[in-house]
Amino acid sequence: ELYIANAGDSRAVLGRLDEATKEIKAIQLSSEHNASLESVRMELRSLHPDDPQIVVMKHQVWRVKGLIQVSRSIGDAYLKRVEFNKAPLLAKFRLTEPFEKPILKAEPAILVQKLCPQDQFLIFASDGLWEHLSNEEAVDIVQSYPRNGVAKKLVKTALSEAAKKREMRYSDLKKIDRGVRRHFHDDITVIVLYLDSQYLTCANSRVPLVSVKGGGNMGYDIDIIDA
To answer: Where are the transmembrane segments (predicted)?
Structure first.
């Protein structure tokens, strides 16, 4: 069994072989905690019934307290404990009003997925990738591209899409200073983990399910890019 714990808007996607069509299907294994989702806004409002400003639309994006899109995270202590809501944190990132209970939670959503021989690989990526690629597009790239460098291929494809949306070339986007590029795309972190089907059965098993050793039939590929 695979246990997925997620707090925030990163995503885990499983690539599974459909034996009938011989195609690789994308299966999302994580739930996202982003204020753009109506269910997340409803959860926040139920947790903070006395705060009409718990989620507000700012710059055409739903944000928690007008500051952040995620409703759960490991960091962002200034929205969890009042003693962190002060300098040296820049004033524009602070809450102006006091709060008694945490606004964000660090509690993850946990999903248990039974792995089967048809499961080929897992893609773990931050929201910077998923802003520009669908689950199906990412799975198609991993399936059709050589294992070595596949994470970098996903990042490059996402950046190319980000450049296209701004009517510019990928090569021109890469020339922009990292601090300025934040206006064009978010940070992107991608990990692709390949599964060896000889270890996977649909029945309970205690043998190793995955390995992070490079080479052979199993391995992983990682790429990170800062905005």
So the answer is: none
